[in-house]
């Protein structure tokens, strides 16, 4: 079978980056290329892997695989959602695959969830090739806005009192590309202004403690200049670099910490709803190894 793509050699997709340790790469075996294009914003590749289901790759970086996406989507969503006493309005920046929305909608208290995705190609391809995530895009509580998340915040959310949110989840791609602004202080100021008094944010940090703890520290320092509470947690996931990804969490109200769940489901309900998240892992995900805690906290 023809597997012709610059990132696929001998039937294996290879993710490489200067951010990795020297001599490190991530490979997934490819069964079939489903789609490849240069969209208006980024290189987009969707392939069927032999063992991880369908895989979405943007600018050479794996975004989701059907096999392990639940780990990231559950943690980036349920950590802030359960830390908040009553999240009704939720904003997702990025996240065009729909996976985070799917998790947000598991909370009955949510009245409205807005998703702001820059790239229509991601939405269309997710609808076609990632149905277990993208079905959430069509839910009656969901509004999908096709726009740059930074501009959306600047022009809409931060200006109108009625457009404030309880939770804002930045489910973006890495800083090299259209998501660059999401790692700068001005973005966190916009987030702060777009939140209600008890509002919380969580951001895909694109880093992890093994590979680039200095960048993680820089991001945490930026957040701390804006928010009174900034904490870092992580989730384990095989197809993100070095098997884990850090999530930066901030709270507007100094009395509310994102690391402390304010609500929880029964054990049985947790098992029905989630595969990764549970009440105990919520707090545990903020406990870092010695060297990382010394550096970050
Ligand atoms: N979970 C993934 C990860 O950590 O690799 C992220 C998945 S999600 C598909 C990332 C999305 O953010 C992409 O669809 C991308 O188009 C979107 N995105 C990047 N920059 C954006 C921007 N400025 N405004 C809105 N969405 C953006």
TrEMBL record:
GO CC term (a single one): cytosol
Gene3D superfamilies reported for this sequence: Spermidine synthase, tetramerisation domain, Vaccinia Virus protein VP39
Active site per UniProt: 171
Coiled coil ranges: none
Keywords carried by this UniProt record: Polyamine biosynthesis, Transferase
Pfam families the UniProt entry points to: Spermine_synt_N, Spermine_synth
Domain PABS: 10-252
InterPro entries membership: PABS, PABS_CS, SAM-dependent_MTases_sf, Spermi_synthase, Spermidine_synt_N, Spermidine_synt_N_sf
Single GO molecular function: spermidine synthase activity
PROSITE patterns found in the cross-reference section: PABS_1, PABS_2
Keyword Transferase among UniProt keywords: yes
UniProt key word Cell wall biogenesis/degradation: no
HAMAP family named among the record's database cross-references: Spermidine_synth
Family that this chain belongs to: Belongs to the spermidine/spermine synthase family.
PANTHER family attached to this UniProt entry: SPERMIDINE SYNTHASE, SPERMIDINE/SPERMINE SYNTHASE
Protein name according to UniProt: PABS domain-containing protein
């Amino acid at each position: 079978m023809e597997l012709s793509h610059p990132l696929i050699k001998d039937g294996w997709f290879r993710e490489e980056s200067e951010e990795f340790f020297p001599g490190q790469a991530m490979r997934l075996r490819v069964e079939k290329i489903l789609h490849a294009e240069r969209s208006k914003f980024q290189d987009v590749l969707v392939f069927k892997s032999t063992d991880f289901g369908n895989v979405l790759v943007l600018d050479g970086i794996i975004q989701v695989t059907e096999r392990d996406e639940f780990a990231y989507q559950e943690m980036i969503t349920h950590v802030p959602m359960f830390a908040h006493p009553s999240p009704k309005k939720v904003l997702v920046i990025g996240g065009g695959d729909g996976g985070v929305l799917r998790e947000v909608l598991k909370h009955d208290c949510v009245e409205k969830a807005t998703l702001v995705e820059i790239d229509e190609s991601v939405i269309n391809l997710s609808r076609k090739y990632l149905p277990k995530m993208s079905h959430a895009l069509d839910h009656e509580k969901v509004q999908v806005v096709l726009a740059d998340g930074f501009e959306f915040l600047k022009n809409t959310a931060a200006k109108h009192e009625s457009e404030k949110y309880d939770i804002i989840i930045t489910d973006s791609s890495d800083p090299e590309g259209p998501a660059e602004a999401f790692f700068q202080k001005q973005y966190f100021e916009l987030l702060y202004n777009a939140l209600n008094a008890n509002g919380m944010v969580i951001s895909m940090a694109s880093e992890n403690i093994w590979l680039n703890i200095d960048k993680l520290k820089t991001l945490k320092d930026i957040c701390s200049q804006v928010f009174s509470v900034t904490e870092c947690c992580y989730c384990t996931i095989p197809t993100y670099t070095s098997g884990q990804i850090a999530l930066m969490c901030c709270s507007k109200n100094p009395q509310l910490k994102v690391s402390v769940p304010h609500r929880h489901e029964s054990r049985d309900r947790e098992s029905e709803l989630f595969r990764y998240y549970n009440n105990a892992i919520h707090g545990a995900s903020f406990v870092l190894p010695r060297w990382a805690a010394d550096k970050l906290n």
